[in-house]
């Protein structure tokens, strides 16, 4: 009888040990399958990281599932040519186009390119909506466009050739890196060559020049945020 009791206790101990191992291995599988720290947009972020011309340092994501809004800060080392920054937008659009069922296709998306500078200067912003300002909200309830075709850019003369060749931009906001007449004229000529453009936003002292230039898009006076 004593022998049977010892045997039963050993059997129960083995069963408990086995159960513990199964639970532990399950926890390990769960832990190791967790995505990177991209707040639920890891597939999107990994694709952009792998296909853009620059390697972001890190991402910061503010995801509002109830309102279907996502604000993404992508941190880089320092200022880059706009063509390199725009490769982030292009890669993002490629992913969303190739993955039509991905949840971000139903969201208002804003991507902000910045550095760790305490002043938080934004070198570029990309969105599927005209709404690119703080506070983060979508007054219309839904994105206006089916791709990231609204942009804001800290622009210099070296960027103009690249920007003039873009055929998928609907709305552009210019913030001059070095505000001068040459850059103003160059930006205006660039806008006139962009067939798909419907809206251009310019700083106050450029507005009259753009408004008097008979552009085929609507000119807006605005302040860079």
Task: Please give a handful of descriptors for the protein shown.
8 strands; alpha/beta; 225 residues; eight-stranded mixed beta sheet; single chain; globular; 37% helix
What does this structure look like?
It is globular and about 50 Å long. Helix 2 (42-51) packs across helix 3 (82-98). Mean pLDDT is 82; it is low at 21-35. It contains six helices and eight strands. It has helices at residues 2-32, 42-51, 82-98, 160-164, 181-192, 204-211, and strands at residues 58-64, 69-75, 108-114, 124-127, 150-155, 171-176, 199-202, 218-221. Helix 6 links the parallel strand 7 (199-202) and strand 8 (218-221). 37% of the residues lie in helices and 20% in strands. The chain has an eight-stranded mixed sheet with strand order 1-2-3-4-5-6-7-8. The chain is α/β, with parallel strands linked by helices and 225 residues long.
Rg (CA only): 25 Å
Provide the structure class: alpha/beta
Helix segment count? 6
Low-confidence stretches: 21-35
Looking at the structure, what is the overall shape? globular
Tell me the fraction of residues in β-strands, as a range.
15-25%
* Euclidean distance between termini CA atoms: 83 Å
Helix content: 25-40%
Which strand order spans the largest sheet, edge to edge or round the barrel? 1-2-3-4-5-6-7-8
Largest sheet features: 8 strands, mixed
DSSP E strands, number: 8
Integer average pLDDT: 82
Q: What's this model, at a glance?
A:
This protein is 37% helix and 20% strand. With 225 residues, it is α/β, with parallel strands linked by helices. Strand 2, helix 3 (82-98) and strand 3 form a beta-alpha-beta unit.
């Amino acid at each position: 009888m004593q022998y049977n009791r010892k045997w039963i206790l050993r059997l129960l101990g083995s069963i408990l040990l086995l159960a513990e191992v199964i639970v532990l291995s399950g926890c390990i599988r769960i832990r190791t399958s967790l995505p990177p720290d991209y707040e639920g947009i890891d597939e999107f972020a990994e694709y952009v990281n792998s296909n853009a011309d620059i390697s972001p340092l890190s991402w910061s994501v503010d995801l509002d599932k109830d309102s279907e809004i996502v604000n993404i800060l992508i941190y880089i080392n320092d200022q880059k040519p706009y063509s390199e920054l725009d490769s982030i937008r292009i890669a993002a659009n490629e992913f969303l186009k190739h993955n039509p069922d991905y949840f971000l296709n139903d969201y208002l998306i804003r991507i902000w390119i910045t550095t760790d500078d305490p002043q938080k200067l934004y070198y570029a912003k990309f969105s599927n909506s005209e709404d690119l300002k703080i506070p983060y909200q979508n007054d219309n309830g839904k994105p206006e466009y089916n791709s990231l075709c609204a942009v804001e850019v800290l622009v210099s003369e070296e960027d103009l050739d690249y920007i003039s060749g873009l055929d998928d931009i609907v709305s552009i906001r210019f913030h001059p890196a070095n505000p001068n007449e040459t850059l103003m004229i160059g930006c205006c000529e660039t806008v006139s060559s962009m067939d798909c453009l419907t809206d251009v936003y310019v700083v106050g002292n450029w507005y009259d020049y753009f408004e008097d230039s008979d552009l085929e898009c609507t000119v807006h006076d605005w302040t860079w945020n």
